[in-house]
Amino acid sequence: MMNKQTRYWVRRVLFLAMVAMIGFALYQGVFRADAAPETGSEAPDFRLRTLDGKTVSLSDFRGKGVMLNFWGTWCEPCRTEMPAMQQAYEKYGEQGFVILAVNIGETEVTAGAFARQYGLTFPILMDSDRNVTKRYKIGPIPSTFFIAPDGTIKRVFQGPVKLEQLEGYVREILPGR
């Protein structure tokens, strides 16, 4: 039989263990849900407006290979990679490749002028309130997610991508590969 003091300490230890387990579970729930999307995980869906006023969702492109690129007109590395992106889009678009270029926090006028200047024909999505940028935990830009036809992230790339690299990454996500 346990005396009062032993029962007191056993209860305290059990209570602290339970508090620690609950705290750990809450920590996992809060920070896991808040983690950046990674290779092998499903790309979080979103809805954004395009420069031409349409509303699109990432899930609209299920079945296609998607290059999800986060950029800004003020970003010099973003400017560097845009011609390669346009070339890849023209070359692989007929094979089920799509580029969704998410402009971060700028106006349609600014992004539209940039798209015209660079002759961009792929969809430019406007993340004016930066909700999608926050959801994807974007730090440095350009940041790019290569998404397979089944919606899983196959590759995450930070920095400007060169045409040779881009073509290899695109071939990895084309439908039927």
Question: Can you put this structure into words, describing what you see?
Answer:
With 177 residues, the protein is α/β, with parallel strands linked by helices. It has helices at residues 4-33, 76-92, 108-118, 131-135, 163-173, and strands spanning 47-50, 55-57, 65-71, 97-104, 124-127, 143-147, 153-158. It has a seven-stranded mixed β-sheet with strand order 2-1-5-4-3-6-7. The longest helix has 30 residues, at 4-33. It is elongated.
Number of strands: 7
Main sheet strand line-up: 2-1-5-4-3-6-7
- Quickly give the structural class: alpha/beta
- Could you spell the SSE succession in H and E letters? HEEEHEHEHEEH
General shape: elongated
Q: Give the averaged pLDDT, no decimals.
A: 90
Helix count from the secondary structure assignment: 5
**Chain oligomer state:** single chain
Short précis:
It contains five helices and seven strands; from the N terminus they run αβββαβαβαββα. It has helices at 4-33, 76-92, 108-118, 131-135, 163-173; strands at 47-50, 55-57, 65-71, 97-104, 124-127, 143-147, 153-158.
